[in-house]
Amino acid sequence: MSGAPGATPQLPLSLRYPPDQRLEGFVRAPEGAIAQLRALAREAGADWLYVEGASGTGKTHLGLAVCAEAEQAGRRPAYLPLRAAAGRLHEALEALEAVDVVALDGLEAVAGNRADEVALFDFHNRARASGRGVLYLASAGPAALPLVLPDLRSRLGQCTRIALATLDDEGRREVLRDRARRRGLVLEEAAIDWLLTRTGRDLSQLLALLERIDRESLAAQRRVTMPFLRRALGLD
């Protein structure tokens, strides 16, 4: 049902948590990071976490995985991609008052917008006072973001930090093998090498291609051979 004319569109405050994005499926996490993330998801009063890393390092995977873990533990989670809420963050955060664990993905999308930063600062303080858990995800640490509120930068800096490194080719291969296995998809090493060399090494792009390959192989009822890959990706 559509809303009334002029109503603010509903924000994507939560998503179904994809089965291949779980904490146990994250490849090469920093030492101790998975235990910290699991504690945040499951335990009231656990340390708040600030995960930083370049694009393609798996931040969204971890945000969704923490929400899935919290849900499994009987807690109420919410995942908010901040890019979707930029310019209206106060409204979006008000909708999260009843949840137990919140993953806020993409802090850089609201950095520099004073109204959004004030909304985030106020939310941070309310959530801390009420004992909720918060996971921040950003492309860089608080000191490197173009924040205009020093107090917000200070609050973010008090979170326990986890820095994600960009995977090398062997790490990307490991991710592709794991995701393919979880989907029941057989990928030979030659196919993985071909994907890495012909379609770029950005991990998010590779995983999107893997999903596409999986769909097309199911639709065609075909094994994933090299000729099939070339045709499916239009790279003949």
Q: What do you see in this structure?
A:
- This protein has 236 residues and is of the alpha/beta class.
- It has 2 domains: 23-163, Rossmann fold (3-Layer(aba) Sandwich), CATH 3.40.50.300; 169-232, Helicase, Ruva Protein, domain 3.
- The protein is built from 10 helices and 5 strands.
- Helix 5 (114-130) links the parallel strand 3 and strand 4 (133-138).
- Helix 7 packs across helix 8 (189-198).
- The longest helix has 18 residues, at 203-220.
Q: Summarize this, please?
A:
With 236 residues, the protein is α/β, with parallel strands linked by helices.
Q: SSE layout and pairings?
A:
Blueprint: H1 33-42, E1 49-52, H2 59-72, E2 77-81, H3 82-85, H4 89-94, E3 101-105, H5 114-130, E4 133-138, H6 150-157, E5 160-163, H7 169-182, H8 189-198, H9 203-220, H10 226-232
Parallel strand pairs: 1-4, 1-5, 2-3, 3-4
Helix pairs in contact: 1-2, 7-8, 7-9
Annotation keywords:
236 residues; alpha/beta; Rossmann fold; Helicase, Ruva Protein, domain 3; 2 domains; 5-stranded parallel beta sheet; 10 helices; 5 strands; elongated
Structural class by SSE content: alpha/beta
List low-pLDDT spans.
1-15
CATH fold annotation of the largest domain = Rossmann fold
Radius of gyration: 19 Å
What is the helical fraction, as a range of percent?
40-55%
Which word captures the global form? Answer: elongated
SSE ordering? HEHEHHEHEHEHHHH
Distance between the termini: 44 Å
